[in-house]
Amino acid sequence: MEPLITDTDKTVGVTGGAGFIGSHVVRLLVKKYPRYRVINIDALTYAGNLENIKDIETYPNYIFERADICSEEHIDRLFSGYQFDAIIHLAAESHVDRSIMDPLAFVKTNVLGTGVLLNACRKQWSHDMEGKRFYHVSTDEVYGSLGDTGFFTEETPYDPRSPYSASKASSDHLVMAYYHTYGLPVVMSNCSNNYGSHHFPEKLIPLMINNIINNKPLPVYGKGENIRDWLWVEDHARAIDTIFHKGKTGGKYNVGGFNEWKNIDLVHLLCRIMDQKLHRPAGESEKLITYVKDRAGHDLRYAIDATKLSRELGWKPSLQFEEGLGKTADWYLENQDWVHHVTSGQYQQYYTEQYGKR
Ligand code: NAD
Ligand code: DAU
């Protein structure tokens, strides 16, 4: 299939490019497409960190703009200045537990912020939508929770159950509304749980790695029986590259790892990997496992059917999970300075509120 967006001189705005997944997407685009001008638009919230993209900040095709996507005035100014050909939208409040503490922050950034960006594209591109593209990066959580069997497909009805997933579902609906109402050339993907380097240590895998290193309790919610489908973050970045260039306008693609794990089994596996890396006796880190109060409205199981993406666009996950976890553990062990920077200050307050003093 001919790419819809070609590798000619294009100005591509990436929102949330200082976050976990966004930094991998920015790195991939800047290195792979020297003729693209990549503008990273990020507010640098607690989750955004310019250290995540330090290795590419001097590339001539990369520019950083600190901006809040909820500020219509600031976003309009950036659109006038850069005349974007495309936006890849990742900026969001992304942590479910925080959405339970402060739901309106999620409504603001994920719903209003997405609306501001869509509207800026509509205004900027209204005369000529040829070659333009708004790519919305969304989550499998919009589909709700599965029982023991079945998979989320692109046709699964939306059934979000946390303030985070409800805000992402709302943003997905807004994106499709701009497609149907204004003919905005949009494309969207819904991905399962990512893991890898630069993952903020409030999320399960980096939190567990960090706590194992520091001999702190490993807080497993409920009985640890909830299931997630894990994908190597660089495979997600590759999927975004593929869908951005080849995805059908108005189309929607599920992205997943075909890799389901019960939380407690995953934590046991991480403990084994970390015992080896830290030269601890086998079984030592498992002693840190502590069952804590369950997450409110905790979705039982997510599992993505990503066959449309592999069948139509040829994408497949590349990395085997144990290898990916090993590489992730190595990254955290080698980048303790990064961990110390992002877990100081505000993070300590969040941790105490979420897990109590330990
Ligand atoms: P993250 O929390 O690590 O990063 C979010 C980034 O957005 C940060 O750099 C932050 O500074 C920025 N940001 C937040 N509010 C902003 C605002 N108002 N204006 C501008 N920038 C703002 O998130 P992530 O895990 O990298 O997720 C990125 C996207 O992918 C999100 O849209 C998320 O819903 C989606 N997603 C994440 C996963 C996952 O497993 N992490 C899976 C599927 C989809
Ligand atoms: O499915 C995609 C989603 O995956 C993304 O849209 C979200 O942005 C991302 O945060 C992630 O959401 P989850 O809630 O699935 O991820 P989290 O790492 O927070 O939790 C994974 C599982 O581990 C979940 O069942 C809750 C559990 N958990 C989590 C934490 C932080 C624990 O048992 N203990 C913990 O301390």
**Which architecture name of the domain at 10-198 and 231-259 and 298-319 and 351-355 does CATH use?**
3-Layer(aba) Sandwich
Based on CA atoms alone, the radius of gyration comes out at: 20 Å
Largest β-sheet summary: 7 strands, parallel
* Amino-to-carboxy terminus distance: 55 Å
Number of helices: 12
The low-pLDDT segments are: none
If you average the pLDDT, what whole number results? 96
Query: CATH topology of the domain at 10-198 and 231-259 and 298-319 and 351-355, what is it called?
Result: Rossmann fold
Order of helices and strands: EHEEHEHHEHEEHEEHEEHEHHHH
The CATH H-level homologous superfamily of the domain at 10-198 and 231-259 and 298-319 and 351-355: NAD(P)-binding Rossmann-like Domain
**Percent helix range:** 40-55%
The molecules bound to the chains, other than polymers, are: nicotinamide-adenine-dinucleotide, 2'deoxy-thymidine-5'-diphospho-alpha-D-glucose
Structural class: alpha/beta
* Cross-sheet strand order for the largest sheet: 3-2-1-4-5-6-10
Taken from the alpha-carbon principal axes, the silhouette is globular
DSSP summary, beta strand count? 12
- Proportion of strand residues: 15-25%
